[in-house]
Amino acid sequence: MTPVSTSPGDGPFHSEQSPRDEAPQFVLPLVARIERAAPPARTDALETAARAVLVLLADERAHGEGAWAEAVRNWEDARIRKVVRRARGAEWRRAEALPGITVTGKSAQVRVFPPIPLDGWPKDLAKLQVSGTELDDPEPPAGADPAQPVLWLNPALEMSAGKAMAQAGHGAQLAWWALSGAERAAWRDAGFALAVRTADPADWPRLTGGGLPVVRDAGFTEIAPGSCTVVADHPGLR
What are the start and end residues of every segment in region (Disordered) (predicted)? Predict the structure, then answer.
């Protein structure tokens, strides 16, 4: 699940072939807790996954000489990949025992781990299921607060919950990179408040053409290459 942005240049989200494709490839693992008896609401799971990505990016271990800094640099030097797997019961407990951060939403729990080589998954994560994660909202989510960051999903695309969680994470990361240091600090201090909503089809051309960060998927799974999946609408970027 590799995104690209509409920004020019040789970036990790750039759509054209580049030297980044020759670098060792890394992936950011996210594991969603999905118990049979009490699965999380879909929108809450998407929002929690997006916040989990931001929490890791802001963590002191991901910077400088931190324990995760080299892995994060290697990941950002190549294509940006995220993979969402699901766990329950003992699977979740084993995942929680690995180095990472658990982020909790209203009904969702998502654990994010430092980046790993694409073919170097820890045993307890490698055996978790990645496909077929389907979640529902018990009732339609409330309208987004215009003063809050919103990750707008493409209304024309159908994505599994796992795919949409990864795409929301991409959108959050693009917004994070585009913000100033002061804006990042303010967002962090607000607990990375955000909403994930499906855009109104009538608004989609304005959102994608307004200069906001746009995620375009590489097309490895579920959707066609180059599909615009998410627009990151942060008040600091409007």
Answer: 1-24
